[in-house]
């Protein structure tokens, strides 16, 4: 187990190195290809070519690419992502608060989607074709079909704006001026935990809908498969209750697969929630990346790409190691 | 069985119940909502009360260094936190383009137009209480021209004697700026009819002598050295700006500032902000209202009192690269001007509600503007085809058009132009890219971009800010000269207009505008945009500053 985990961690480190290089190179290749100059952006629209050249020099952009990369790598090894061209402060000061905001969004949403999907999916597997199962599947199909870029403004509108006009889901049942939820905004957990949850509730729901739909179907299928296995029939024959069968037997076989999926999805969500962040004005990593692209803030863009890649690699590694812990079949793979 | 299957639901149900209770508790104390401000029915001179909350889009703040800011939103803030030597009157529309005394009285100008002497006013001081001196003003101008600081406005002061030597590192002072404790004198190498406008640029915001020649982005300068009716209280990049009333601002410099606190939440999209204003969760936004919202809100009679519109000092045009075939041929450029359907193009932007079609260079409200129509609003294909024949170019021509694709309207406008030009044998490939990429690309003369759609806002309400800055024939490779216009025959007319004063200046620019469009047609103007603001019912004293292209915070009060 330890050897397998060690190999996996070494592999992950190699992946991070390669991804870092590729991410850095990719952006510079794109920048070169499009001819988009951050120096021009910073120097201003009336700047002369000499002034633009001066800005480029001060940013080190006049250096050969290989030299710029070496400088970049050297800084990176010291945890220094460089200096934002636009905000004129260390990229790390921009990145970490953004990462905290995104983690707040994604982890909160993950709790919600699991809280919905595990019972609904398990019920569907336990009672296939029952009313509850059919309803759960219909909801799951709807959840998977609705794109988040549509859902986010609709939820903000229905639960943020409409109540202020005295309506909830189109029904005039609230007093005009009811402030049910804020349409946008974010409050740090450390600043005010209640406001943090209040401001994130609609974004959590928005993000959770699509994932919950996938997980309902996933958990339902796995549960149904496990319930059809001989060992569950044996457990039932020995008089185990449904609850005990679900938790002690089915659950132990379903959870490793759910964990693997969760790890991958949380990693994906951490780096791909810019729609939700943009609509609800959450200053997360996606929002930061998008804003950096709008401003051609190369160091921030590069840092966001690298952090996203590192999160994906770390999440997958953690999931693999956790999977080894949860599933004896994996950790007992003979050395080969 | 039935019971056991429901048990797992207890967790989520309990969580949901707890969350709902939490939400109910929170709903009365939302931090996003407008604050419960002290109400007042009108602005009281020297009295500031209440809080107004505004939304700002991401990327609206380019810098927090007063000598560097350039974006319209930061100019709006500058107008509140800075008092320049002379400043714009806090009035709506054209009256807001008139200059008035700022930290200094209106200057004494020598008869040859080469010397401007400003005497500082007794109440001119920074927000920490320190008086602003003539030396501070001189230092400010040296700083804004320093290459480590300059965002491009240093260009406007190259006619101050000794100015070019300072940024070039050949001198550590500017001989043409002479300062005493309460006066500052500028000696110019040539008359400059727009010098006072330039002295009112937000980048001339005074900073104390000794401020580092390195960009100051923490907001410290606006906190301690603000010179307007407001100062910065806090700045969280990409999150929030809080601006409060500056108690050290001397109201004898002008009665301005009636709100105790402004909170700007950064990163809110224009459409979401409009919803929040309508919902009473927000008071205003710093961006122009999105076209879809303009249409939606303008048709709602109940909101009429909350919508304000003004002409912007801006023109959107199709630039034609005068150095690249086929647009190096004047007949082709004129043919394009005859062939494009300006009305249809503007429809893609939002129609007459959001702009006025134009075929001239100058924009309404700026000195040097006299309306005329050089080309039709709808295509005159007969004329256009005749010009194409006269041009002698071989048809069909394949070329490309660049436009930004991350803001609504531009790509749609490009498609209309493509269709229009196909009718005269010009096949256009439309290339879209985000504004950051597009603007950098087309500004680079080495890109040889044949044509593109670009909006241009004036830095000050004078023809020079559009004609000289945007198409100076003496500098065809300057970044803003997207047409690469370099017709040397026009250089004397450009120089004469820039040096002239008053009525003569206006007349020279009017003539130049007409001559450019009718004789050489360096580009194809399309429309002049309008500015729309949508504010909450709590906002009183609304004024749009034409000069800053932003809300004038100095006149607002909380109802």
Q: Your description of this structure?
A:
The complex is a heterodimer of chains A (about 325) and B (about 550). With about 325 residues, chain A is mainly alpha-helical. Chain A is built from 14 helices and no strands. Chain A folds into two domains: about 80 residues; about 240 residues, Orthogonal Bundle (MetI-like fold), CATH 1.10.3720. Chain A is about 75% helix and about 0% strand. The longest helix of chain A is centred in the first third of the chain and has 36 residues. With about 550 residues, chain B is of the alpha+beta class. Among the domains of chain B are: about 130 residues, Dipeptide-binding Protein, Domain 1 (Dipeptide-binding Protein, domain 1, Alpha-Beta Complex), CATH 3.90.76.10; about 220 residues, Dipeptide-binding Protein, domain 3. In chain B, strands 12, 13, 14, 15, 16, 17 and 18 form a seven-stranded mixed β-sheet that branches. Chain B is globular and about 70 Å long.
Short description:
With 336 residues, chain A is mainly α. Chain A has two domains: 2-77; 92-331, MetI-like fold.
Strand fraction of chain A equals under 5%
Task: Provide the gyration radius of chain B in Å.
Answer: 26 Å
| Mean pLDDT rating of chain A | 84
Q: What's the CATH architecture name of the largest domain in chain A?
A: Orthogonal Bundle
Main beta sheet strand tally, sense and closure of chain B: 7 strands, mixed
Low-confidence residue ranges of chain B:
1-39
Largest interface, counted with CB-CB under 8 A?
Answer: A-B, 77 and 76 residues
Question: What gap, in angstroms, lies between the N and C termini of chain B?
Answer: 63 Å
CATH topology-level fold name of the domain at 314-530 in chain B: Dipeptide-binding Protein, domain 3
Classification by helices and strands of chain A: mainly alpha
Number of strands of chain A: 0
Distance between the termini of chain A: 13 Å
Amount of helix of chain A: over 70%
Order of helices and strands of chain A: HHHHHHHHHHHHHH
Give the radius of gyration of chain A: 25 Å
State the CATH topology of the largest domain in chain A.
MetI-like fold
